[in-house]
Design brief:
The protein is mainly α and about 280 residues long. The protein has a single domain, classed as Glycerol uptake facilitator protein (Up-down Bundle). The protein contains 12 helices and no strands. It is globular, with a radius of gyration of 19 Å.
């Protein structure tokens, strides 16, 4: 079966945006919470698989192979993910939606993603998931959280740009396919690439960092301290100011850039072809 062309996927995405932009707040919020949970579950799977592997390169390979299941589920189930919705800028530029409705979607979806991912992190930390490996998973989770919070602000910002370049490419590649297998393959490889490269995704970090913070609040605190992890950065203030803000801004820019390139190269030309 032939795939959708770049012109077709650009046009199809723009046409789908009015529904996303005008959905009731409750529906957007539910789908956004769902997406936050799904991204978090991809993170749970990747951390659980990699937590006891000593080789750094193998850790990245294993986490990159496991993490994409989150976005695959989101694409196939129609959940609302903030980073992917950066592409809605194409519909605003084309006049299919208003800028106010775009910002409304982004705000509601961002809040919903945060609720879903942080809520999952709390459940994983306080109800036994981090007991795996005798607490090794808790220490590993805190190590990831601390390393993300210790990134220089501009590093986190730039890594966020490149992350969402790949996430939004994954959205478009998934939309080239007519069948489930094609959508899965289209989404998998760009997400595999961003995790392997160590880029920063704001919604994933809404799980990765809070779960490390929560781990340090409970029975794992002494083991985390004994591992030499910088626990001073494991708090929500540092999480938001040192990581979430720069990564979110970078993600917006990366996603908007992909949308602008696709719209300029394909959407505008297709519009001219119809006129």
């Amino acid at each position: 079966m032939p795939i959708y062309t770049p012109k077709e996927i650009t046009d199809n995405y723009v046409k789908a945006c009015p529904v996303k932009a005008t959905s009731p707040v409750w529906r957007l919020l539910v789908l956004a919470i769902f997406a936050g949970v799904l991204v978090g579950l991809g993170a749970v799977a990747s951390s659980t698989a990699a937590q006891n592997i000593p080789d750094t390169g193998m850790v990245r390979l294993v986490t990159a192979a496991a993490f994409p299941i989150g976005l695959i589920m989101i694409v196939l189930l129609g959940a609302e993910l903030f980073t992917g919705n950066a592409l809605m800028v194409t519909a605003a530029i084309s006049g299919e939606i208003t800028w106010a409705s775009l910002l409304r979607n982004w705000a509601v979806v961002y809040v919903g993603n945060f609720i879903g991912a942080v809520g999952l992190a709390a459940l994983m930390a306080f109800f036994g998931q981090l007991d795996i490996g005798g607490g090794t998973l808790a220490v590993y989770s805190a190590k990831i959280a601390a390393s993300k919070c210790a990134l220089p602000w501009m590093n986190a910002f730039v890594l966020g740009i490149f992350c969402n370049l790949l996430v939004c490419v994954a959205i478009y590649l998934g939309n080239t396919a007519h069948d489930t297998a094609g959508k899965v393959l289209g989404v998998f490889f760009p997400i595999f690439g961003f995790v392997l490269a160590g880029f920063e995704h704001c919604v994933a970090n809404m799980y990765y960092i809070p779960v490390g913070i929560f781990a340090n609040m409970g029975a794992y605190a002494s083991a985390i301290a004994d591992a030499g992890i910088n626990t001073a950065v494991l708090n929500f203030g540092t999480f938001i100011t040192a990581n979430l803000i720069p990564v979110t801004l970078g993600n917006i820019i990366g996603g908007v850039l992909v949308g602008l390139v696709m719209y300029a190269a394909h959407g505008t030309r297709q519009k001219c072809d119809r006129d």
